[in-house]
Design a protein that fits this description.
Blueprint (H helix, E strand, L loop, with lengths): L1 H11 L11 E4 L10 E4 L2 E4 L2 H8 L21 H15 L4 H15 L9 H4 L2 H9 L17 H5 L3 H7 L1 H4 L3
Parallel strand pairs: 1-3
Antiparallel strand pairs: 2-3
Helix pairs in contact: 3-4, 3-6
Amino acid sequence: MANALYILKLMLTARRPSHVADMRAVSMPFWLHKGYDALTFFGSIITNSEAEAHRYNNFEPTLLNAQPQSGPTKSWYHPVKFHETIHLRQAQSTRNSWLLFYWKYFVFWLQARRANRVLPNAGYELNPFEMEAYANMYNPHYLDRFPDGRAVGWQEYAKMSLAQRFWARRKYAGRT
């Protein structure tokens, strides 16, 4: 019961995506399916354990190179946290609304479920939001290419047929 109340609290106290600077991680192991590391939920990152939440909240940046960076690039990142940050930026691109983001996510998930016989978990893996996040989670400079910070690469995946998405996901499938 306490977990359900905490989920409700997260939903009711959520700020618009553009008002979230850094997503805090919280541990809710019952919320995640086996095999998933994290989940973006109304501006928070849900993790499997307290240790993971602590690691994301107290992440020590690692320099990618010794040279100072110029421009709006980041000199550090954590791939899983960056993946979830891409989801935050995607929510900003859906009229800055968590509800619209989750509605579109659900619709894309339903559409892709038709391919479950060919690809187990197709609803997740062929979802344009996930495809953009997975394809770019190892590129810490990905969000720098969008002047307003909103990730809109998912829109290109959304225009593809399921068969095209299936073949497009092979580009990043080996890295997950």
